[in-house]
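W.,

You were right to be curious about this one. When I first looked at the sequence I had no strong expectations either way, so I just let the prediction run and decided to look at it fresh. Below is the sequence, 151 residues in total, followed by the output.
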Amino acid sequence: MPNWTDEQLAAIEQRDGSLLVSAAAGSGKTAVLVERVLRRLTDAHAPVDIDRFLLVTYTNAAAAEMRGKIADAVTARLGEHPDDLRLRRQLLLVHRAQITTVHAFCLNLAREQFAALNLIPDFRIGDEGELAELMEETMEDVLEAGYDRED
């Protein structure tokens, strides 16, 4: 077991409400979150299934790393308790867990709530080329409107 700092241990053990972990690169954020999730999955009194969590990162690589480390931690614990059906279930569910990027989470939310957002159901995100073209057209429109007003 790692030697957790007081702040890390507080983040691991905090139970009431949501938790935001923000710290410099290499400070152990992923290790803290993996330990926090593992403890919640294996809590003797009120265990939580992995697919009930929302873990949001900034990059696809960080999300994939977190998913892999959680799966590795569950696998290691399962090695210690091979007959634990709950752990086996968590290992299967880890691939359904919401471990995602901010952008992917927001896109998924918009797809689920398109009607409330007054969007067409098959909306899509433009690629960089399309977005650059739209920005150029918009800039031309703004400048032309300014010229027309002699502004």
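Here's what jumped out at me. The longest strand covers residues 54-57. And, maybe more interesting for your project: The radius of gyration is 22 Å.

Coffee later to discuss?

I.
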